[in-house]
């Protein structure tokens, strides 16, 4: 515990200009509008390469969840720049949501690249409050690298279950806490406060598999995987889907 605190202090000292900007109330607006959309696009490219085969495997059965009308209505939470669009089947109708509206440039670019989809609308909404989406109105909800930064994972999953129709599916790929006995978890604890500040609320030590197991899914398929991203503490991931 003492070594974690000492190393946290050292890291905070290195990042002291950001802490100062945060104290002055200047970091958060800059982060949301400029830094985070920029850095997420760059990290997203690397993460996309590492996770491509896992996403291909994850989304391969997405067409099986088409509604009675034959259409597939997908709601993506925390769409960001739209890195998942390439994995969706042709013709599906996509509603995009994000709490941060400042991804428009990269999102528009990915929409143009993926003309095989029908884009319904973009909603500025927190994952815990999807009141703009009617209950039981979508066939699938997608959430990748988002649950790490929501204010309440349990509230988010309740909203997911609300908007899904019976028999619909929730798809996820998220970074999680490492095993407590491993050095990776030690470094996650060290980096936690500074990482959360710099990366717009991203939490390194959430054990999200527990939240998913506690949610009221009738079926849950999930596995732990490792995605090695150089110089980052986000190697452990979970991937899978739950059925309402």
UniProtKB/TrEMBL annotation:
One GO MF term attached to the UniProt entry: S-adenosylmethionine-dependent methyltransferase activity
CDD domains named in the record: AdoMet_MTases (cd02440)
Domain of life: Eukaryota
InterPro entries per the UniProt record, alphabetical: Methyltransf_11, SAM-dependent_MTases_sf, Thiol_S-MT
Gene3D superfamilies in alphabetical order: Vaccinia Virus protein VP39
Pfam family membership, one: Methyltransf_11
Start and end residues of each Methyltransferase type domain: 75-172
PANTHER family associated with the record: METHYLTRANSFERASE LIKE 7A, METHYLTRANSFERASE LIKE 7B
Protein name: MET7A protein
Species of the source: Dasyornis broadbenti (rufous bristle-bird)
This protein's encoding gene: Mettl7a
């Amino acid at each position: 515990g003492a070594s974690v605190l000492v190393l946290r202090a050292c890291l905070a000292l290195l990042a002291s200009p950001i802490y100062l900007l945060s104290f002055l109330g200047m970091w958060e607006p800059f982060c949301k509008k400029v830094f985070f959309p920029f850095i997420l696009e760059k990290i997203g490219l690397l993460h996309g390469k590492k996770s491509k085969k896992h996403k291909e495997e994850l989304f391969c059965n997405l067409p099986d969840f088409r509604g009675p009308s034959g259409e597939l209505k997908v709601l993506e939470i925390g769409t960001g720049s739209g890195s998942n669009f390439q994995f969706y089947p042709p013709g599906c109708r996509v509603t995009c949501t994000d709490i941060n509206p400042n991804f428009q440039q990269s999102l528009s670019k990915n929409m143009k690249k993926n003309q095989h989809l029908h884009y319904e609308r973009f909603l500025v909404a927190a994952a815990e409050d999807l009141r703009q989406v009617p209950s039981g109105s979508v066939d699938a909800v997608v959430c990748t690298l988002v649950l790490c930064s929501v204010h309440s994972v349990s509230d988010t999953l309740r909203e997911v279950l609300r908007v899904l129709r019976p028999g619909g599916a929730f798809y996820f790929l998220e970074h999680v806490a490492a095993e407590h006995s491993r050095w990776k978890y030690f470094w996650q604890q060290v980096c936690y406060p500074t990482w959360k500040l710099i990366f717009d609320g991203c939490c390194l030590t959430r054990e999200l598999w527990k939240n998913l197991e506690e949610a009221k899914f009738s079926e849950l398929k999930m596995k732990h995987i490792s995605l090695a991203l150089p110089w980052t503490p986000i190697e452990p991931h979970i991937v899978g889907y739950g059925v309402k």
